[in-house]
Specification:
Largest sheet: 9 strands, mixed
Helix content: 25-40%
Strand order of the largest sheet: 3-2-12-11-13-14-15-16-17
Number of strands: 29
Strand content: 25-35%
Amino acid sequence: MSTYPVPLSAILAHHARQAPSRSALVQDGVAVSYGELDVRSNRRARLLAAHGVGQGDFVTVALPNGLEFYETIFSLWKLGAIPNIVAARLARPEMEAIVDLVRPKLFIGTPPSTEVAALPAGSVPTDAHSADVLPLVISPHWKAMTSGGSTGRPKVIVDAMPAAWDPTEGFLNQRPGDTILNPGPLYHNAPFHCITMGMFVGATIIEMGRFDPLRALELIEAHQVNWVTMVPTMMQRIWRLGPDALSRFTLPSLRMVLHMAAPCAPWLKEAWIDWLGADRVWEYYGTTEGTGSTIISGTDWLAHRCSVGRVRDGYAVKILDAEGQECPVGEVGEVFFRPQGGAGSTYHYLGSEARRIGEWEAPGDLGSLDGDGYLYLSDRRNDLIISGGANIYPQEVEAALDAHQGVRSSAAIGLPDEEWGARVHAIVQPVEGVALDESALLAFLAERLTRYKLPKQIEFTNEPLRDEAGKVRRAALRQARLGDPIDPEGKA
């Protein structure tokens, strides 16, 4: 970061001065300029201040994507408060657990109980709430995101970075003044982080509200979008539109498609590279905790197939075995990261403890490094299936399933087996209107997987298996089929 980071409380005004006519946000054809968003968030900040919100206070935000969400986030930074973002429709027990951890000064949205001080969604500032500039203040933590983690119990990840940013420094190849499409739910860290960072450098955000594959392409072309982040589920839904629909779009303005947050099947990655070109398809892997991350271009991916890239500047990575010893090149072990500032320098938890060995911290993934330092992920540590002494990675089974044209989504879990210890159980959501046959699907898999990795049973469901961020909660799926509670290590 350069020598002059701008407090996030003043960053809208900064961009309004630099480019008065530039739109900060466009949704459903309605544009809001940086100057207008600055004024609106000033008024909303005074509304929140009237409810007791001040510097250093946590405020839980349970709002859908939209202008009110953006106004609220920037108004909290104007007060020096800490936004704690949650899904607006989160199940009540999980919402209660988060509120119990955070103890927010205010809950914006529908609270889990009447005991929580709340401001309902749709609340509008009145003429009594001035639009004048507020005193300059910096929140001690620019965000506090929530995560269910592998155990299903919520935790809150409080970012160590104060609320200030260099408005000339783009995040992950974003550039000042870009036009950026947001297809994702802002209560997930990846879209929240990327979209707000885009606004920190004066980007125009095209907000979808809710993802639709054809509409995403239409918006990219109509608004000449330069940068977009997606999860593989979105990429697959776009690809399933078929060649006739895709041939209508060349997307010449699109400089970068960055996918993250979930594994991408190799066939899908190759399809997008063939369609858009390797220089436009990138992948990012990292932690909400900010302990480490990697990035890889499509060109490098073709040379290091299935890698998630090399560690970014400012971080280090290594692979450790069960005894905490460093694994040789090519051997699968647990991934550990170390940020430049050392353990605990990038965040702290509410409701959880970090898994550390000295200065090294584990995000919970298994993987390996090649001789050039490229990282290859295998799966989550707690999701590994050990059958007859052999390691089976659910991600590999799911990638093979998802390659079938009739499969919309899939999940592979391990269930107890008297003979093998565990067996692979596949859960498949077919494409709407497609009737899948178990034996035919198994024959399809037999051409792509070693025999011992084949599912012993395939269960079909019409229920979505992944959330809007493309994540699958295998522990919860396994628990539902066993009826057992999840233990503290996340294993049923």
